[in-house]
Amino acid sequence: MSQCRICSSTVREFLDFGSHPLSSAFVSPDATGEEFRYRLAVGACTSCGMVQLTEDVPRERLYHKGYPYHSAGSTVMHAHFEETGRGFLARELGGPDPFFVEIGCNDGVTLRTVADAGVRHLAFEPTGVAGGRVHSAFFDAESAAEVRAAEGPAQVVYSANTLCDIPGIGAVFEGADILLAPDGVFVFEDPYLGEILARTSFDQIYDEHVFFFTARSVASMAACFGFQLVDVERLPVHGGQIRYTLARAGRRTPTAAVAELLAEEAARGIGEAAGLDRFGAAVHTVRRDLVALLRDLTAQGHRIAGYGATAKSSTVTNFCGIGPDLVPYVCDTTPSKQGKLTPGMHIPVRPDTAFRDPYPDYALLFAWNHAEEIMAKEQAFRDAGGRWILYVPEVHIV
Is pTM beyond 0.85 here? Predict the structure, then answer.
């Protein structure tokens, strides 16, 4: 048992993945010494329902200038963030001299969309990646107060795939309260626990993802800090996300979508102990089936490659014990990963061009959340007789 990061109540652990390396700590072949490791386990608060990691990893080990993920590498994600920026321009940034703030802009697609419209903007981005005006600091009360004094209040504080990564989330809410205009909105989008449970997408659980949100847990969290959940929107990206819109309590009327999602979660029992335990059992089934399939294909002499050296693939390879003996290499488009070894299991990472030189017989698709985009791009692989191995929601071949 541990203590909830939101309400300080008891957290009941329901799934332990064991010892893991940092998910984005790709290793040089000549530097395969001891890697930093931590225990990857997840539990649920018995009071507010927040599902969360039970142990922390120091943020300075996770986010730095060498951080390898870039959203613009996917055409789907690039379009998603451009559309997000246009939506803010249409709905929230139409007044006189509006100010837009983003927490964790990565390579800045949303930020650049807002900037190109002539709107004042600023991103808090400790990795130092460009894309607009960037403040290389973590977002908290102190940094927010500095910006408020220099820039004035913000109409929107936005975050994508970042808020769920911050253990000290109370400091973010304090910063939002300081920086937001009275009628401003705090908007964030992150993986949705309901989809993770439905898909058995256990690889969404890794060191960077501290929280796994639901409408219920977000509403409870918001209330702890004087905010209110006023809107929710389902997003198809990254295997299923929710965009949550918060405002100061009483400043906006919640949409019908909030009540509908809360009712759906209650009806499905999302976040309840029994469902979480069933999820844990399903995860172990996927591990058993995936390892068995890879061993069988290897014994039959088939050539297997991994596709997408994603952060979440670290959970799969380390939890399942998948190394170069079962998957000799993994192809990825990110130059900073190429020529290195995956964390923990040390599978060589090759450029995406190596995927077709020659094609393997089977490709284990770690980047399954981009399956449609990737399969369209790699149609020649299928034409040559190649087959895709997927493990979400269960192990299967397509």
Answer: yes
Q: How far apart are CA 222 and CA 210, in angstroms?
A: 17
In angstroms and rounded to an integer, the radius of gyration of the C-alpha atoms of the chain is 21
Instruction: Write a three-state SS string for the chain.
Output: CEECCCCCCEEEEEEEEEEEECCCCCECCCCCCCCCEEEEEEEEECCCCCEEECCCCCHHHHCCCCCCCCHHHCHHHHHHHHHHHHHHHHHCCCCCCCEEEEECCCCCHHHHHHHHCCCEEEEECCCCCCCCCEECCCCCHHHHHHHHHHHCCEEEEEEECCHHHCCCHHHHHHHHHHHEEEEEEEEEEEEEHHHHHHHCCHHHCCCCCCEEECHHHHHHHHHHCCEEEEEEEEECHHHCEEEEEEEECCCCCCCHHHHHHHHHHHHHCCCCHHHHHHHHHHHHHHHHHHHHHHHHHHHCCCCEEEECCCCCHHHHHHHHCCCCCCCCCEEECCCCCCCCECCCCCCEEEEHHHHHCCCCCEEEECCHHHHHHHHHHCHHHHHCCCEEEECCCCCEEC
Residue-level pLDDT at 67: 47
pLDDT, tens digit, 9 for 90 and up, residues 313-359 = 999 999 999 999 999 999 999 999 999 999 999 999 999 999 999 99
For tokens 């539990």, name the residue: 43
pLDDT of residue 17: 98
Mean pLDDT of the chain: 93
* Structure-block tokens of residue 357: 């030189």
CATH 3.30.70.100 fits 61-274, yes or no: no
